[in-house]
Amino acid sequence: MSVKILALDTATENCSVALLVDDKVYVRSEVAPRDHTKKVLPMVDEVLKEAGMGLSDLDALAFGRGPGSFTGVRIGIGIAQGLAFGADLPMIGVSTLEAMAQGVYRKHAVSHVATAIDARMSEVYWGRFARQDDGTWTAADAECVMPPQLVADESVTDEQLWFMAGTGWDAYSAQLAEVKFNTQKSEVLFPDAEDIVQLAKIEFAKGNTVDAEEASPVYLRDTVAWKKLPGRE
């Protein structure tokens, strides 16, 4: 099936854009923690120009739905919605944790990934994923936010080797070193639109899209930033 999907992600320190045109992918990616708003739209323009396309030529627009930085997730979904509204495109939200698992698979061809993003406040965004034959990922541990020591305490022994992805492994290395399953390092620290777009392609083929006004983020800890606003408790 011929498909053209644009994906973007600003949920973590990494800012990335990817354009999938059939089997070819045009990518831009840069670790730029404070410059997402400046960089993401120029990246979109660059990949579209490289492919010789416009937004109206696309079939769908995908985005990293979180978890991640509260501000970063909001930036990503806001920009994605604006583009989708303007071009009347359906949207596909993809888990940033699952995207990191896909990134490890792309680099190492392995099917079991344990993801941990540093969530600050002595917590991690956590999830473990196993890749299926159809290219989808099944959650071995449901996505959640929790203290890394609790991750270790609640882990169970198994015979599977789990590849590590995300900033949480380094940020809380002492606590997460106590997990009871076998682990192997990978160089994947952040989600990337290059992997989001591949997962979005699978969802698009299944008809799993939403209208732009229905696109929603996944914060996992969505009350924290709200409570920090002046006058809130």
Automatic annotation (TrEMBL):
Residues 30-227 form the Gcp-like domain. The keyword Cytoplasm applies. InterPro entries: ATPase_NBD, Gcp-like_dom, T6A_TsaB. It comes from the Bacteria. The keyword Lipid biosynthesis does not apply. One of its GO terms (cellular component) is cytosol. It holds the Pfam family TsaD. Keywords: Cytoplasm, tRNA processing. It is found in: Cytoplasm. Its main location: cytoplasm. GO terms for biological process: tRNA threonylcarbamoyladenosine modification. PANTHER family: TRNA N6-ADENOSINE THREONYLCARBAMOYLTRANSFERASE, TRNA THREONYLCARBAMOYLADENOSINE BIOSYNTHESIS PROTEIN TSAB. Belongs to the KAE1 / TsaD family. TsaB subfamily. This is tRNA threonylcarbamoyladenosine biosynthesis protein TsaB. The lineage of its organism: Bacteria, Pseudomonadati, Pseudomonadota, Gammaproteobacteria, Vibrionales.
